[in-house]
From TrEMBL:
Keyword DNA repair applies: no
Identification of the protein by name: GMP synthase-like glutamine amidotransferase
Pfam families, per database record: GATase
Domain of life: Bacteria
Gene3D superfamilies for this protein: 3.40.50.880
UniProt cross-references to InterPro entries, sorted A to Z: ChyE-like, Class_I_gatase-like, GATASE
Organism of provenance: Pseudochelatococcus contaminans
SUPFAM superfamilies for the chain: Class I glutamine amidotransferase-like (SSF52317)
UniProtKB keywords: Glutamine amidotransferase, Transferase
A GO molecular function held by the record: transferase activity
Annotated ranges, domain Glutamine amidotransferase: 65-206
Cellular-component GO terms for this entry: cytosol
Length: 251
């Protein structure tokens, strides 16, 4: 019996651009591959997948054998898409090849933005300033019936911390969720690609820590959001990694 492989790509921040000591109080410190692994365990995904992680921002190599990967989660980043770091270019090239496989990808925050640019969309610095806090997402008609939002409603809150936003999408993209200043807070890009501007994988403590250096006052905007991690489980189901019966081992 073999298990499908789920790859998490971390693009946390450009090395040396932040104070690592600020992260000592949270699980995994500044290595988000640790809390993501813990989350997958908490929501019951771990027994059914092989979890792999690459710290792309640290120069770790992305896998060349795409046949060995079944689905990918692309994390957020303190770096702007427009920064143009070499590791960002490497991720973009990798995503171009991954797109051709037709396999599932779930992008989060900076991952959402990078995926959009790879597909020909456009990201801009928000003229309204950063989106901060535990905030609700308004589902579109498409989003209300989409498997990514299974178990959620328009009162469901998620963690936001972004200064840039997706402003133009590729022609076939479908918006699943919005906020007043975010016309594309959740998107189905087709081809088994989904992405969101918010952080369903995070905790309020981790999000508050994001602002420890940038603007500590913003940390007060986060409150505990029970159940937002269900969206990661929804993606795992969408990707065929787990089923409602909880058994996805493949012969």
């Amino acid at each position: 019996m073999t298990r499908p492989t789920l790859l998490f790509i971390s693009q946390f921040a450009n090395p040396g651009s932040y104070d690592r000591s600020k992260w000592r109080r949270v699980q995994g410190e500044d290595d988000e591959t640790v809390p993501v692994g813990a989350l997958l365990d908490a929501i019951g995904v771990t027994p059914h997948v092989e979890y792999r992680a690459v710290r792309a921002h640290e120069g770790e190599l992305l896998p060349e054998d795409l046949g060995s990967i079944d689905a990918i989660i692309l994390g957020g980043s303190f770096a702007f898409v427009s920064d143009g770091y070499e590791w960002q270019h490497e991720i973009s090239r990798f995503l171009g090849a991954w797109r051709r496989t037709g396999k599932p990808l779930f992008g989060i925050c900076g991952g959402h933005q990078l995926m959009t640019t790879v597909l020909g969309g456009r990201v801009e610095r928000s003229p309204h300033g950063p989106e901060i806090g535990s905030l609700p997402v308004s589902r579109t008609e498409a989003g209300a019936s989409h498997p990514l939002f299974d178990g959620f409603d328009d009162d469901s809150h998620f963690y936001f911390a972004n200064s840039e936003r997706v402003i133009e999408l590729a022609p076939d993209d479908v918006v699943l969720g919005t906020r007043p200043n975010l016309p594309a807070a959740a998107v189905d890009h087709g081809g088994n690609w989904l992405s969101v501007q918010f952080h369903p994988e995070a905790t309020c403590d981790r999000m508050a820590t994001c602002w420890a250096e940038l603007n500590p006052a913003n940390a007060a905007h986060y409150r505990f959001v029970p159940g937002c991690e269900r969206m990661v489980l929804n993606f795992a189901r969408f990707a065929g990694l787990v089923s409602d019966a909880g058994n996805t081992d493949r012969e």
